[in-house]
Amino acid sequence: MKKAQKPKKVVLAYSGGLDTSVILKWLQDVYECEVVTFTADIGQGEEVEPARKKALQLGIKKSNIFIEDLREEFVRDFVFPMFRANAVYEGEYLLGTSIARPLIAKNMIEIAKKVGADAISHGATGKGNDQVRFELGAYALMPNVKIIAPWREWDLLSREKLLAYADKHGIPVDFKKRKGGGAPYSMDANLLHISYEGGILEDPDFAPEDNMWRITVSPEKAPNKPQVIELTYEKGDIVAIDGKRMTPGKVLAALNVIGGKHGIGRLDMVENRYVGMKSRGCYETPGGSIMLKGHRAMESITMDREVLALKDDLMPRYARMIYNGYWFSPERKLLQGLIDASQATVNGTVRLKLYKGTMMCVGRSSKDSLFDARISTFDDDGGAYNQADAGGFIKLNALRMRIAANKAGGKSKRK
User: Is 219 in a helix, a strand, or coil?
Assistant: First the structure.
């Protein structure tokens, strides 16, 4: 490697685990560069301060260790905008991992600019989606940044090789990791969800054991009594639960607890990765599942039919943008503007009944409601709607089919 190609300072997305600790030392050895560590708290439910201690143990200067609490920013600026679009990937996935990556990339680039780094590094593998998401985000925000992805460069492609490297270089390793303990699959958690993949889950016909799930009870063990919650919306975002106003981060955290208690939000699916392969993943998204249900109910009475249909038409494309890593792309930003404009009237309250893994809307109201009981009633509407008008409406809409039928009938007679 030519000396000119080596970066002087690299910002590493650092969790403090085995992989990123090995990467930290590997960067110092192979690239002979100064390493800056960045650890994001996005609600993964684990203590992030140990990452600081471990980075210090590995020789990182105190001024080069960044630990940021991003929970509120995550929900306010990433999760909420995504849910205004009712985004679902391939009909099921609520994009919990996908939406976290652009936030991490954004903060890595901000730190790189702050400390004068010319490169960033991450622990995503060369087979997954996360490498794409991190790097597309980074390039969009810092076009000339150098990106180092060790899993695409090194030969440490097994747990045994990683442990051997850690032993050789005195890198502290968790006892469970060393003894092969812990979960027989990989996990990734944030305030929106927990994902499980790899290991024993690579067989799509293998049913995960119930003790795999961390934040939801099984529907069979959920309370026998349903719970009704009221969500208050302002411009498409939840601002209160049962009348209590909360910040975006607090809203999602509270809904996770409520939904998890009732066994809501479990998903087992095979999805199509952007790099081309199919992948089996299991997900827990209790709060997000409630948010989606409530938001659609709120839109049902406050949004014009054709505006809602247009949003629904665009949603799969919007979801693919997020899944594939194009959060900072001009097309996603353009589409977000349309989506956000559509939410001006999405205000009011929705009541949801939660029971043993199920949700049902049992009430919705809004000062901006387009529902007019005088017109929709099956009883006497006092002349608000002239039912005789429907005949002409139907006949005009049938015109093309009548012409085609007459044409087909004429052909059959000639035969």
Answer: helix
CB 92 within 8 A of CB 267: yes
Check 52, 71, 84, 101 and give the catalytic one.
101
What's this model's pTM, rounded to 2 decimal places? 0.94
Q: Which of 19, 98, 133, 237 is catalytic?
A: 19
Do 106 and 205 sit in the same domain of this protein?
no
User: Does residue 130 have an active-site annotation?
Assistant: yes
Can you give the residue range of the structural domain that contains 247? 188-303+346-365
Q: Say yes or no: 55 and 168 in one domain.
A: yes
- The whole-angstrom separation of Cα 231 and Cα 352 is 8
Q: Is residue 101 among the annotated active site residues?
A: yes
CATH number at residue 197: 3.90.1260.10
Residue 125 lies in a domain: yes
> Do 213 and 105 belong to one domain?
no
- Please tell me which residue in 152, 167, 186, 242 is annotated as part of the active site: 186
Name the catalytic one among 15, 52, 84, 130: 130
Strand 266-272 relative to strand 278-284, pairing: antiparallel
pLDDT, tens only, 229-261: 999 999 999 999 999 999 999 999 999 999 999
Q: How confident is the model at residue 178 (pLDDT cuts 50, 70, 90)?
A: low
